[in-house]
Amino acid sequence: MRKTYLVVLLSLSVVLMLSGCSEQATEAPPADAGGSGSLDDGLKAAILLPGSANDQSWSQLGFEGLQAIGEALGAETAYSENVAVPDAVDALRDYAGRGFDLVITHGGQYEEAALRVGEEFPDSKFVVIAGSVGNDSNVTIANINDQQLSYTRGIVAGRLTKTKKIGLVSHLEGMPVMIRTNGAWRMGIKAVDPEIEVCLVYLEDGEDVAAGREAALALFESGADIVEPETNRATQGVVDAAIENGFLTSARDPAEIERGPEVVMYGVDYGYNRLFTGLAEGYQAGQLQGGSYLTGYDTPGAGFEVIWNTNIVTQEILDEIEDEVIPFFLAEPWLEVPPVQAESGCQ
After folding, report:
1. pLDDT tens digits along 49-105
2. Are 305 and 269 in contact (CB under 8 A)?
3. What value does the mean pLDDT take over residues 194-206?
4. Could you tell me the end-to-end alpha-carbon distance of the chain, in angstroms, rounded to an integer?
5. Closest C-alpha to 279, from 94, 98, 43
6. Cα–chain-centroid distance for residue 121?
7. Which DSSP symbol is given to 289?
8. Residues 6 or more apart from 123 whose CB is under 8 A from it?
9. CB neighbourhood size of 1 (10 A)
10. How far, in Å, CA of 64 to CA of 54, rounded?
């Protein structure tokens, strides 16, 4: 089969959408104006990662975003790998105490720690990637609009399944970001056909590649012809199992399409390098004041890309996304996701 891939650019911007309970909106600095800073500016930025910096998944996205800050702004950077949630407070205190201006936590599981340390160090700015609340002063939430992307992914899976059974391997059950992400994915599938059985499995450790593989194989053996990952390094186990056994899957890294052109439906460039650099520039400009910076279909500008494997994802499906899904979110950017939609098990 001829290998052809279609890059679909979701044109987005880093926009201040929410601040606490308000709906005040303020445009953030351009995310593509790199090079405006230097070592003389003295910017010091650090990041806490839940996994390894080279995990080819979630933690690597954060590490590369930090590197982008260093390269674009000449900032001094530092990072901590494999940071357990109970250790996050001490790690954040250490960075803030050593004069780091901008400290990023790469995961919503660190939000409570960031809010706590943010009170102790009001002169430092903290960013929680994939968080939920933040504050109105020095703790900022930043991410893509996970509901929009996940609902779109669900539409694609719903259109492609033949067995009418689809699985997802994830972790951190009950966390707000996972409710939004996994619940919207299930809702997208059910919007295609309410009779499709959708099964969610949550791992105890999102870094466990073997557990990801085992969970994916179990879902496949139970009849699922599509099993997707929404986890950290364990994503690799899911993709490996799909390539070896022939069921459809997806990946964070678009390069996985080349490795599994018959099974990897798409990859995603989340645009975190642009997002992180924009946040750092916002800090330097004095415009990073808490709240939430989110990108979605409704925020045109710089953003992320979905790379569809057109060996698998048909033009008809892509047209549906363009003609129906995107206009839906332009009219109503926020999707109400009931927690039950993200519960483990089959529905």
Report:
1. 999 999 888 999 999 999 999 999 999 999 999 999 999 999 999 999 999 999 999
2. yes
3. 97
4. 35
5. 43
6. 27
7. -
8. 138
9. 7
10. 9
DSSP one-letter code for 39: G
Burial degree of 69 (CB within 10 A; 0-12, 13-18, 19+): buried
Paired tokens of 169: 């391997």
Tokens for 336, please give them. Answer: 């109400």
Output the CA torsion 291→296→301→306 (10° steps): 130
> Which residue(s) pair with 129 in the sheet?
106, 142
**Structure tokens of 30?**
């351009």
Are the CB atoms for 62 and 104 separated by under 8 Å?
yes
Residue 42 dihedral angles phi and psi, to the nearest 5°:
75, 15
CA–CA distance, 206 with 267 (Å, rounded to integer): 19
Is residue 58 packed enough to be buried (19+ CB in 10 Å), middle (13-18) or exposed (0-12)? buried
Structure tokens at 50: 């839940």
| Tens digit of each residue's pLDDT (9 = 90 or more) over 139-161 | 999 988 889 999 999 999 999 99
* C-alpha count within 13 angstroms, C-beta hemisphere, residue 191: 20
Q: DSSP secondary structure string, 162-185? A: SSSEEEEEEESTT-HHHHHHHHHH
Q: Are strands 249-251 and 264-269 parallel, antiparallel or unpaired?
A: parallel
| Full-model pTM | 0.80
Give residue for tokens 């979630």: 58
The C-alpha R_g of the chain, in whole angstroms, comes to: 19
Distance between CA atoms of residues 276 and 280, nearest Å: 6
Q: What are the E-state strand segments in 130-263?
A: 139-144, 165-171, 197-203, 226-230, 249-251
**What tokens were used for 280?**
């750092």
Q: Which two structure tokens, joined as six digits, stand for 147?
A: 């509901």
